[in-house]
């Protein structure tokens, strides 16, 4: 016989965790979902509810728009955390000895009671799973996409019905970079099975060449070389363009490996001719899917969760006003419950109705409380980050970042590391120096000769500066970079230099060489 100690989270705790990790952009959607599901929850300040009770019942006064709080940029949350509004009074269920009155048919909530169970208080996506743990930064988007523009251009092309169907299939095969990487025979199979259209690869290729003439230049290419050649074909022909086309057509492998002497010898080019041709190729767009009016994806912008301002060294931290919605329990539901409790005739349907109302009231209170806890936790965590990285927020200098891990902030605010992780994940802050994801401020420490740890971001910043200042004709190897960093007092190994270089998307020395 074994004794096991286990811990289970309550529905309220699970709901708080789910709300904590979602960013501002998703919070608005989540609140709208809850308002639709729970009629006992409504937008509005709880103080308004108190005023409603104080006012005369016959008053026809208009109320403020509950959405106005969302549009008020000056709205701050400090008072929301210092002062807690009064809790709604707990309402007890009627006793089990309710006298049944079958003839009482005044109240019929069968439409509500036939819905799914409410007690679980689930939302879409509340089920278990690791997908919630690693969220991407939320991006709001607007506008039409490049794929819409390509379909418009296809409509103006002089094509028959079969070619139009092939063209639509090809446009649907374009990936985010603007390439068609699928084999033409596979596209022919898709046409045959999905649309009952028999088309040979040569027929598909003829339509593909028409699409490759669309804007932007390079769209619909099957590989990088074809993409670059398609762009060169749009340029006025001169010696530089011809040399660039020859390099891509005849010496593409040497070009990708930057074996310039071999290219020069094979194509019999002068130094200036080779240099101008390479410079022209490097100006071309390797990902035409990101060009055009709005790219294949929509125009996107980040919605910051925090706003940080600096008033002569005094920081003012606020939550984005969208994080602070005014929600309250609907007074009508509370009054409805009280009316049920005072009713003289109480049958089974009446009891079921009371149970339904209580579930909705409890769910509304849980949700409001979870939103408040979320606001408090977000501000406490971000305030600790600001205090820890004060020097950076004063100057915006990356070299001022201190080594900081999740544990440091968790100890500072006396919370679990997992809570800090949920706050830092997919959240961002707007500062005077730009918008930063919270993950940006967390970095490991590197030992220095002075005995103090330096942030890995500081080391990366210095590494990037060294590489930017190197001779492009003779770029520095990782070994030389290691020695230069060691000379500056950073105790770092060559493999760490290589790791940081790769994280900065900087290629090896051979591929950084320029003419």
From TrEMBL:
Biased composition (Acidic residues): 42-90, 99-110
Residue intervals of the RNA polymerase sigma factor 54 DNA-binding domain: 355-513
Pfam families per the UniProt record, alphabetical: Sigma54_AID (PF00309), Sigma54_CBD (PF04963), Sigma54_DBD (PF04552)
UniProt-annotated stretches for the region Disordered: 31-110, 119-138
GO MF term list: DNA binding; DNA-binding transcription activator activity; nucleotidyltransferase activity; sigma factor activity
Gene3D superfamilies assigned: Homeodomain-like (1.10.10.60), RNA polymerase sigma-54 factor, core-binding domain (1.10.10.1330)
Stored InterPro entries: RNA_pol_sigma_54 (IPR000394), RNA_pol_sigma_54_core-bd (IPR007046), RNA_pol_sigma_54_DNA-bd (IPR007634), RpoN_core-bd_sf (IPR038709)
GO cellular component entries: DNA-directed RNA polymerase complex
Domain of life: Bacteria
Sorted UniProt keywords: DNA-binding, DNA-directed RNA polymerase, Nucleotidyltransferase, Sigma factor, Transcription, Transcription regulation, Transferase
Gene Ontology BP term (one): DNA-templated transcription initiation
Domain RNA polymerase sigma factor 54 core-binding positions: 140-333
PANTHER family per record: RNA POLYMERASE SIGMA-54 FACTOR (PTHR32248)
Stated family: Belongs to the sigma-54 factor family.
NCBIfam families: rpoN_sigma
Protein name: RNA polymerase, sigma 54 subunit, RpoN/SigL
């Amino acid at each position: 016989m074994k004794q096991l100690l286990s811990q289970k989270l309550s529905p309220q705790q699970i709901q708080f965790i789910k709300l904590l990790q979602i960013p501002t952009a998703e919070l608005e959607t989540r609140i709208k979902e809850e308002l639709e599901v729970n009629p006992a929850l409504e937008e509005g300040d709880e103080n308004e509810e108190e005023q409603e009770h104080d006012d005369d019942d016959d008053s026809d006064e208009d109320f403020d728009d509950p959405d106005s709080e969302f549009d008020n940029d000056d709205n701050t949350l400090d008072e929301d955390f210092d002062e807690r509004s009064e809790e709604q009074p707990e309402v007890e269920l009627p006793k089990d000895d309710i006298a049944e009155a079958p003839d009482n048919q005044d109240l019929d909530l069968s439409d509500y009671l036939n819905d799914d169970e409410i007690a679980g208080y689930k939302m879409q996506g509340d089920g278990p799973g690791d997908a919630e743990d690693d969220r991407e930064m939320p991006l709001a988007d607007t506008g039409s996409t490049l794929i819409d523009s390509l379909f418009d251009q296809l409509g103006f092309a002089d094509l028959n019905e079969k070619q139009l169907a092939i063209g639509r299939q090809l446009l649907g095969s374009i990936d985010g970079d603007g390439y068609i990487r699928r084999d033409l025979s596979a596209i022919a199979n898709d046409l045959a099975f999905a649309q009952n259209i028999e088309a040979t690869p040569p027929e598909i290729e003829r339509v593909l060449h028409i699409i490759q003439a669309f804007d932007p230049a390079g769209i619909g290419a099957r590989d990088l070389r074809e993409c670059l050649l398609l762009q060169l074909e749009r340029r006025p022909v001169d010696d530089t363009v011809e040399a660039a086309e020859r390099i891509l057509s005849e010496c593409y492998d040497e070009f990708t490996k930057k074996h310039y002497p071999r290219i020069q010898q094979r194509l019999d080019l002068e130094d200036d001719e080779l240099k101008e041709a390479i410079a022209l190729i490097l100006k071309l767009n390797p990902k035409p899917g990101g060009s055009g009016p709005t790219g294949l994806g929509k125009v996107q912008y980040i919605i910051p969760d925090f706003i940080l301002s600096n008033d002569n060294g005094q920081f003012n931290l606020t939550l984005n006003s969208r994080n602070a919605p005014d929600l309250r329990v609907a007074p009508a539901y509370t009054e409805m419950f009280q009316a049920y409790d005072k009713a003289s005739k109480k049958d089974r349907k009446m009891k079921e109705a009371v149970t339904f109302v209580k579930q909705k009231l409890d769910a509304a209170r849980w949700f409001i409380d979870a939103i408040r806890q979320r606001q408090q936790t977000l501000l406490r965590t971000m305030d600790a980050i600001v205090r820890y990285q004060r020097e950076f927020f004063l100057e915006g200098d990356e070299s001022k970042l201190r080594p900081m891990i999740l544990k440091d902030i968790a100890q500072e605010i006396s919370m679990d590391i997992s809570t800090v992780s949920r706050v830092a994940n997919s959240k961002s802050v707007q500062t005077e120096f730009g918008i930063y994801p919270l993950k940006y401020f967390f970095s490991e420490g590197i030992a220095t000769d002075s005995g103090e740890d330096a942030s890995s971001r500081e080391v990366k910043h210095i590494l990037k500066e060294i590489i930017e200042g190197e001779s492009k004709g003779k770029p520095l190897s990782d070994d030389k970079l290691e020695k230069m960093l060691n000379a500056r007092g950073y105790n770092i190994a060559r493999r760490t230099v290589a790791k940081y270089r790769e994280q900065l998307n900087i290629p090896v020395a051979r591929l950084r060489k320029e003419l």
